[in-house]
User: Fold CbbQ/NirQ/NorQ/GpvN family protein from Parapusillimonas granuli.
Amino acid sequence: MAEQSNAVARLDRRGDHHQAPPYYLPAADEVALFEQCHHNKLAVMLKGPTGCGKTRFVEHMAWRLRRPLITISCHDDLSASDLIGRFLIRHDGTVWQDGPLTTAVRSGAICYLDEVVEARQDTIVVLHPLTDYRRQLPIDKTGEIIDAAPGFQLVVSYNPGYQRMLKDLKPSTRQRFVALDFDFPPPDREAQIVAQESGVPDTTARALVELAHKLRALRDRGLAEAPSTRLLVATAHLAARGIPVKRACQVALVSPLSDDASLLAAMNDLVELTFP
Amino acid sequence: MAEQSNAVARLDRRGDHHQAPPYYLPAADEVALFEQCHHNKLAVMLKGPTGCGKTRFVEHMAWRLRRPLITISCHDDLSASDLIGRFLIRHDGTVWQDGPLTTAVRSGAICYLDEVVEARQDTIVVLHPLTDYRRQLPIDKTGEIIDAAPGFQLVVSYNPGYQRMLKDLKPSTRQRFVALDFDFPPPDREAQIVAQESGVPDTTARALVELAHKLRALRDRGLAEAPSTRLLVATAHLAARGIPVKRACQVALVSPLSDDASLLAAMNDLVELTFP
Amino acid sequence: MAEQSNAVARLDRRGDHHQAPPYYLPAADEVALFEQCHHNKLAVMLKGPTGCGKTRFVEHMAWRLRRPLITISCHDDLSASDLIGRFLIRHDGTVWQDGPLTTAVRSGAICYLDEVVEARQDTIVVLHPLTDYRRQLPIDKTGEIIDAAPGFQLVVSYNPGYQRMLKDLKPSTRQRFVALDFDFPPPDREAQIVAQESGVPDTTARALVELAHKLRALRDRGLAEAPSTRLLVATAHLAARGIPVKRACQVALVSPLSDDASLLAAMNDLVELTFP
Amino acid sequence: MAEQSNAVARLDRRGDHHQAPPYYLPAADEVALFEQCHHNKLAVMLKGPTGCGKTRFVEHMAWRLRRPLITISCHDDLSASDLIGRFLIRHDGTVWQDGPLTTAVRSGAICYLDEVVEARQDTIVVLHPLTDYRRQLPIDKTGEIIDAAPGFQLVVSYNPGYQRMLKDLKPSTRQRFVALDFDFPPPDREAQIVAQESGVPDTTARALVELAHKLRALRDRGLAEAPSTRLLVATAHLAARGIPVKRACQVALVSPLSDDASLLAAMNDLVELTFP
Amino acid sequence: MAEQSNAVARLDRRGDHHQAPPYYLPAADEVALFEQCHHNKLAVMLKGPTGCGKTRFVEHMAWRLRRPLITISCHDDLSASDLIGRFLIRHDGTVWQDGPLTTAVRSGAICYLDEVVEARQDTIVVLHPLTDYRRQLPIDKTGEIIDAAPGFQLVVSYNPGYQRMLKDLKPSTRQRFVALDFDFPPPDREAQIVAQESGVPDTTARALVELAHKLRALRDRGLAEAPSTRLLVATAHLAARGIPVKRACQVALVSPLSDDASLLAAMNDLVELTFP
Amino acid sequence: MAEQSNAVARLDRRGDHHQAPPYYLPAADEVALFEQCHHNKLAVMLKGPTGCGKTRFVEHMAWRLRRPLITISCHDDLSASDLIGRFLIRHDGTVWQDGPLTTAVRSGAICYLDEVVEARQDTIVVLHPLTDYRRQLPIDKTGEIIDAAPGFQLVVSYNPGYQRMLKDLKPSTRQRFVALDFDFPPPDREAQIVAQESGVPDTTARALVELAHKLRALRDRGLAEAPSTRLLVATAHLAARGIPVKRACQVALVSPLSDDASLLAAMNDLVELTFP
Assistant:
């Protein structure tokens, strides 16, 4: 049991509840909805674009609910074994090592699978018995079935705006989650975040947010994804350290978004308009 | 033999027959049909949409027939070894470990392969000699052939409504099963389930079921899969805990079903109509 | 040598020749042809639809020729090592373990590869030197070449009616077999089998066979494969245990064959016509 | 060295030169050409259809040249390690085990790669330094370079009539071989072979050869490959054991060649014409 | 800790800060921008064609910022384990070995991923938590989460001009970097570099740069990539050692760029024009 | 160090500089160009058709420059580990074994990668840091970075005339080499080589070369690759041993080049014309 709590402590960097809560400004009723899902043992899917605050929200909720948080970044090659665990061959025998999902299930942690749609089907399917009334994790390799400890909750994130070839969540998976929609914050709040995190004056922050809104409108003209709040903060950081704001916009806001010459020109024109 | 029954006990969470039976309200003659299949040693295929109660039915039948139940969720990477077993290398030698199918065959359990069509062909083909008059499981790796213990029965589930690319059950596999068709329960019974599991008043439960029927009609307009009874119960749970029912429908019933803006709008209109 | 005969006994469930012969009613001259192939050391290919009695025929012939029978179900992932054998790493060294084909070659058994076309090319190619005048099995991993013991015979089955993408037997493989064609038994004999195996009255058995012939005619309208005698027997089993015969036809004869609504309707109409 | 000759003896079943020579009736100057290639250290490619005697020819030449013969059947999954050798992990350490090609190179054997085009490119490329003036086999895994012993010769077979998707020998590989063309024997000689190997009377043998010529003409109408002399011998074997010759033609000559109904009908008509 | 600094010293060949700085002539404000990114803990993406000085720039900045530099060349088969580390099985047990990224994270080095777009998605996704406010590297296999040491910075390079099939950086990855654009140096500076590195006279260097500009204009006519400064230096090296400059251009500047006969002719015409 | 020179000696069969130089007749200034590249530490790419003498040229240059030569035949499955080295598990622990590239880098050998375009990208990319000013080989698995010893040079060969699907050298790789173009020798010199290596009279050798020129002209009519000097020498060898020259042309010059009936007829017509 001491070993179990060590495993959680090692995986959960937000676990020290004496710390200040992770900064998060609620947009609507998402905090109440998440709390009800938690108490009703319902899994949650956070839908929204890159960099709009989904990860922060989960960290905030974990702090608020006093639960450890275990985060897993999903990708093409994430196998079920990476989640559940594996046998390690050691010179003195074979030992079983729990994966991060198993640790979360045993310890009643919130388990957050970031960009879940990137994972392979065999990885996603192991989540199924954890998301219905069974709340069980079968471990085929040891023949064990673990009942989720009280407090365990599965949370996944998902970016519906980014088109993937062939990859999608199966309907039978989607129906296992309550879905909370996220978006970029409204202009005033986004400007407040930019100013607070970077130290630029409010006028600059507001101008950057205004620019971001114009750039996001280019999505219809072929921009693969809208610039995130994170990009605005990076731009503001450079501006706050003496880089001319127009130059900061070019390197931190425009150039990362595309390699297409006409799109880049259109975006730089908008920079010019905003910071003449 | 003690080891064998331990393995079953470890894999079967429904094995305690002193417990109350798993809640299941029969729709037609499926209980009698299943019992006759069991007594005639015929394998059964449960056909029907996600979340319409197939898993519950199997659990109920296992309880009713006093058989242990071993459930396996199928997926793309489920190998024959995952079902049958493998050699484990240990520091003191190599030991054979039965997989869940082998455990079921040896102990006379009901073995339930959920979403069998997701499994690879090599996994499905090992089921063949278990589903004809032979009732045998050959284990190539040990050179052993196991006769199924009395009471062993193979059950698979299959969702014919969900289109898969390239994947389908081969006719030579299909012909090895008696097929029982499942569908969502009729309105009255579905409302009864929703009210009983969530605690919402009957009027709310009936309204939710009415809404579900309207949403299911959207399948012709591109909805990949109809909302399940499970989604209705999740929605009702949130409503029972103080979330406004319209909001609960948005996050637990509508948003999980699609990312398509026009489909989402159509679904939210139906919510508005039902809970004005 | 004692070890060898143990391996055969473990793999061959038909090996006890004091038992009654496996039930098989010859259709034409297939028994005589098979016997001549056996005595001339010619490999045999059984061509025919699923469930028409190919496996039973091989079991019958093995009993008749007093040869052990080793059966291997082929599939996509069946590797040459699965057939031939492999080195097992044990704590006290590495030992070679014969695969089922090697056991058959050493012991002069009949080796039956069911649905051979499903296997990979590298698996099929190992059969080549066993099917010409050499009658040898080279084992690359041990550098051994085994001469087939007297009585060894290779038999494969193959369903020409089932279309596979890209997969087919190479002409250089096909030319290594004498091909015996199988089909469903003629009506009278099929009715006799159905009645004898299930216990239904002769009139019911004949009506079921009549229905099967009508259903088999639907293959031109898109039915992937004709209903087998095995399906008729399953249907009759249910009818013999009190399930109404029309309902038994629906779950055991019609529903397993297709998910297509119009095909299912057409088939159920035929059931209605046969059992009004 | 004793170990080396043991390895060759184990792999070479034609190595006992006190035995009678393998039966082979030369068609043209292929024996002289092969001998000159052998003495000039030139690799040889045998081009021709399935079952026309390529393997027998190599066995005959090995006997004639007093060289051991090592035969390797190529296929999709034949890896370079299968040819060259591998490290085996044993409980008392790791030992290198020569593959059949390495054994041939060290011992000056004739190494015959049957159906070489089926092998993977990485397998074929290891042959390159053995087929030019270098006559060396580099073994990457041990860092060794072996000079071919005197008498070593590489022989490959290749069926140009069988169409493969995407697979072909690279020009840089083809140019490393002298190519000897093989075909079915002329009618008189083919009838002589059929009679001698099966024991049927000369008139039957000649009729079978006449039939084969008509069947081979069907290649323009879609027959994937012409019936081989081997098929004729199998047919004759059955006829010699009492199976009516027409029936023997159906099961051993026609049915193995195709599953196409119209081709089968056309072929059976030709059987009818030949044996009315 | 001593072990850690040994690992860095072994991986970082620019770590000796008593050495002269790597030669780098700034083109614009890239040095100041990089320094601000470094101080604001922002990851940097260097965009530009092959051979225009991106690698040199990173080496220069590492020297300037007094940080160790660890360089990783990305490719198709670079796995997450190659970056993060793996367990090594040794005869006396299993030990964990940090990969180069982990070493950089622990030691506060600059980690430079050259041609990052070539790597697999699972490799790229491990960079995500290092590039936002978390600055953490989770190591799934040990269950450890490492906070990046002060001074750690992630730098990637990327050639937007080279078209790749199917491969591209995901928007959610791109948005994690500040992007600095690189291009070939202006003519005067490029001539200065060519003369200084090769020893050819200034007139020759200027003529070579003039030729390169004409060749780069051929990109619209199908040249896959523009000749780099590196190619000019190689050409000049040969010219400085007595190879006629026209011949040096043919072998070191023209022939490496294409196999297309008409493109080669067009390029050789330009050589002729420049060095008549 | 003694171990290192043993490794080189084992891999380099041309290392004995007391031997006569490998026979090579220069075509133009390729010897001088190669020497200058060697002294300027420039990597070299040899472009030209199969069998035109590229391998001989490298062997000659290694002898001339008194460098050991290590040759690696590239293919689809050549992995980076095959070049660089791997850990071998032995019963007494794990030892690192240098691959051939690492041996070349450590010992200052010429490393020749034959048909480099056949290798996988991950294999090619490890060459990059060896081909610019760094001259380093990073070994990820040991965390070591090796500086190339003086005299180390990378040489690759490449056949631009042979069309590969999807495979090509990336521009960023091509730009790392000086390219020397090779072609078949001019008629007089080719005849001289044929006569000298085979022993046929000069008139026969000249006639064979004349025939080869006519055959090479067929490349526009679909011949995949021109007949090499190597094929001419093989043909001449057979002619010198008594095979009629026309027959020798058929088996050693025409038949290896194609399976296409009309191309074979056209080529045999040319043989007939040359040797009536």
In short: Residues 118 and 165 of chain A are 11 Å apart (CA to CA). Strands of chain A lie at 43-47, 69-73, 85-90, 93-98, 110-114, 136-139, 144-147, 153-158, 177-181. The radius of gyration of chain A is 21 Å. The first helix of chain A runs from residue 2 to 11.
